[in-house]
Structures are given as structure tokens and as C-alpha cells.
Amino acid sequence: MRVAATILMSTVMFVTGCAGNKALRDIDYNAEFQEGKTALAKKKYSKAQMKFNTVVIGASHTDLGDDAIFYLGESHYLGKEYLLAIAEYDRLIRKMPFSDYVEKARYRICQSYVTLSPKYFRDQTYSEKAIGKLQEFIDDYPNSKHGKKAQDDIKDLRNKLSEKSYESGVLYMKMEEYKAALLAFEQVTELYYDTEYIDQTHLKIIECYFRRGELEISRNHFDSKRKHIENLGMAEVVEKWFELGRVMRKIEVK
Could you say which of 21, 49, 159, 187 is the most buried, measured as most Cβ atoms within 10 Å of its Cβ? Predict the structure, then answer.
């Protein structure tokens, strides 16, 4: 809503400005567009936005229409106004689905959400949106030059989501809330099984059940997921847990 209000306010201000200066029909839109591109190249993003917005409002029905909307999005994107950029790219995709700029616009939307994705301990709504948009882009443009980077971004974002669930589980363990910890670790094993945190997660699951006194379940999980524990070099340590009846750290095992 805030983005939509910002766009609407900018449009109203622009139209008001035009009314006091020059009628829309008297504007040279090709000149305005070229001036916008010049301003964009000089990193004068506000000026570029004003120029491109002029073209969008008065000449969206012409051959300049999709160019103007795309470059308006670019001026927001390069100015690090990512939500405003997404709004313009999305407008292009919806209003002009056959434009040559659609693939570029869709990838820019992906890049915007990736950039907006915060550290793992914060809300991950943008990370989830980024993954969805990236996957759609890969599916729709399997031969795109951006395909490899899109796949790498998905991997990094999934790893971040995995880290959030894993660290939540670790925090619950510190509070001795083992049931809640197991639920957090379950998210990793069910949703993010291909991330960097899967081995540590299985180790923590074994420890959770062990600390809850559910030794048989703990042992069964160890036996079934032993490969993950071996990847961490912790198999011998965990064997000692069951032998001695207490959780030990690797440094304690001689």
C-alpha cells in the first residue's frame, strides 16, 4: 500500500506540474525519454524518474510505452528503491506481456527481492518471495543467461532459511524446550534437506531425544542418519553418549 501511495502521489504531482507549464500533447516524448536515459547514465535517478514518468503518463500508448516503464523501473532499481522498482517492473509485465523487456523486468524483480532479503534472524518474507520469483524465472526461461545465477541465489536463500530454523532449534535447546526444538529441526529436515545445515540438524535431533530421556528414539535416529554424523566427524563421540549415558563434546573424547 505504501508503494502504491508513493507512485500515486508522484503521478499527481507530475500532472499538476505539467498543467502549470506545458500541456501533455505539446511535450516531445522522444526528447524526454532520451533525457531520462542521459540522466540515468549520470546516476541522476530522481531526474531520470521524472523524465520517464512524463513518457509513461503521456505516451504509454506509443512505441515508447514499454521502454519508459522499464527504464522508470531501472531508475528506481539503480537508486536502490527496490519496492518501487518492483512495482514498475510488475506494471510492465501486466500491461505489456509481449514486450521485449519482460524477461529483463522479471529478472530485475528477482534481483530486487534477493537484495531485500535480510540476515537470517530477521523476518524472511522477502527471501521466500525471492525464491518463488527465481524459480518461476528459471521455469519460464530455462535458457536464460541468468539461469546459473538464479539457481545459485536460490541455494543461498534456502541456506539462509535453513539457518534460521536451525538456530531457532538451538535456542530452544538452550531453554530446555526440546519439543519446540525438535519442531524447528524438523523444518530443516523436511524443507531444507539439501542445505549446509542438514548434518548439524540431525546431530541436534539425536541430542534432543537423548536429553529428553528417549534413548531408543535417539539411538534409532543415529543409526538411520549415521552418514550425516560421520560427515561431521562426530560418530565416535555420539557412540560415547550411549556408552556413558551423557552428552559429551568432541574434545572430551580421547
Answer: 49
Contact 204, 173 (CB under 8 A): yes
Closest among 93, 101, 36, 90 to 67, alpha carbons compared: 101
- 8 pLDDT above the threshold of 80: no
Name every residue whose Cβ is closer than 8 Å to that of residue 82 and which is 6 or more positions away in sequence: 76, 112, 113, 115, 116
pLDDT band at 16; cut points 50, 70, 90: very low
**Domain-by-domain residue ranges, the chain?**
1-82
Mean pLDDT of 143-148: 97
Cα–Cα distance for residue pair 179/185, rounded to 1 Å: 10
Sequence-ordered list of residues with C-beta below 8 angstroms from that of 116, at least 6 positions apart, any chain: 82, 83, 126, 130
Q: Are 192 and 165 in contact (CB under 8 A)?
A: yes
Give the pLDDT band of residue 3 (cuts 50, 70, 90): low
Report the C-alpha gap between 136 and 106 in whole angstroms.
9
Query: H helices within the chain, ranges in order?
Result: 2-21, 29-41, 45-59, 65-78, 82-95, 102-116, 125-140, 147-174, 178-191, 198-211, 215-224, 226-231, 235-244
More confident residue, 249 or 41: 41
Question: How many other CB atoms are found less than 10 A from the CB of residue 172?
Answer: 20
State how far the Cα of 185 lies from the Cα of 168, in Å rounded to an integer.
8
